[in-house]
TrEMBL record:
One of its GO terms (molecular function) is DNA-binding transcription factor activity. Residues 148-247 form the HTH araC/xylS-type domain. This is Response regulator. It comes from the Bacteria. Pfam families: HTH_18, Response_reg. The keyword Nucleotide-binding does not apply. The modification 4-aspartylphosphate is found at D49.
């Protein structure tokens, strides 16, 4: 989904018309409405004019970057101002690309595709970090802090077989839809799959403790039954829990 924030109706309709054949598109005519829609719908990318009634485009970008619900969203700024210092101001506010009017619609479309492809690469980066260590992703950025908080909530409720997406969203103070779109944008996966991944990664760590049975590991990580745990574990790691334990654990004498 692409969100277009532009107060000039002709320009807004033109951009929407050019993007609509390729993406789902929504629009807003002012900065305040655009910011609200961004937080509610979590679009994949935002095209935003600099000069807007209410919040300016630069203020919109600054607030987007400060809110972890929207901090990951790429932003393309559109403006009639082409002075180098003004373009620098746009980039410093957190915009990913700064285009001056009039702009080539084909260039805009290809720029959007490139930014979305770069976002896909970043998703893989986050996914690799989480697969290596589920404890905490260092909160050096707003997105990383969000993932650390999300992971901590899941781990704190790991033994709960009934832990739901709604429970996690409630703990974060957001809606189920907002949580889904944020996790999908960052990791390319659903929240349920994310929770399952945390359970399985933790189970793999606990299996190294020879004093615990496979059933005990299953219940400690929130699986409803040992058989379901074994099926999920083998689907993820291509090896059963008992085989994993035999390979990596030396029996105590």
């Amino acid at each position: 989904m692409i969100l277009v924030i532009e107060d000039n109706e002709d320009v807004r309709d033109f951009v929407v018309q050019k993007l609509a054949p390729h993406f789902q598109v929504s629009s807003a005519a002012d900065g305040d409405t655009g910011l609200r829609l961004a937080a509610e719908t979590i679009p994949d990318l935002i095209v935003c004019d600099v000069m807007l009634p209410g919040l300016t485009g630069l203020e919109v970008v600054t607030q987007l970057r400060a809110d972890w619900r929207t901090s990951h969203i790429p932003v393309v700024m559109l403006t009639a101002r082409n002075a180098p210092e003004q373009q620098l101001e746009g980039v410093q506010s957190g915009a990913d690309l700064y285009l001056t009017k009039p702009f080539n619609p084909t260039f805009l479309l290809e720029s959007i595709r490139t930014l979305l492809a770069n976002r896909a690469h970043l998703r893989e980066h986050f996914r690799r970090e989480l697969s290596v260590d589920t404890a905490t992703v260092a909160p050096q950025r707003v997105d990383q802090k969000f993932l650390a908080e999300l992971t901590a909530i899941v781990e704190a409720n790991l033994t709960r077989t009934d832990l739901s997406v709604e429970d996690v969203a409630r703990s974060l103070g957001i809606s189920r839809v907002q949580l889904y779109r944020k996790v999908k944008a960052l990791l390319g996966t659903g929240v349920t799959d994310f929770i399952q991944g945390i359970r399985l990664t933790k189970a793999r760590q606990i299996l190294l403790d020879d004093s615990l049975t496979i059933a005990e590991v299953a219940y400690q990580t929130g699986f409803s039954s040992p058989s379901y745990f074994s099926t999920a574990f083998k689907a993820k790691y291509q090896i059963s829990p008992s085989e994993f334990k035999a390979l990596h654990v030396t029996p105590q004498s």
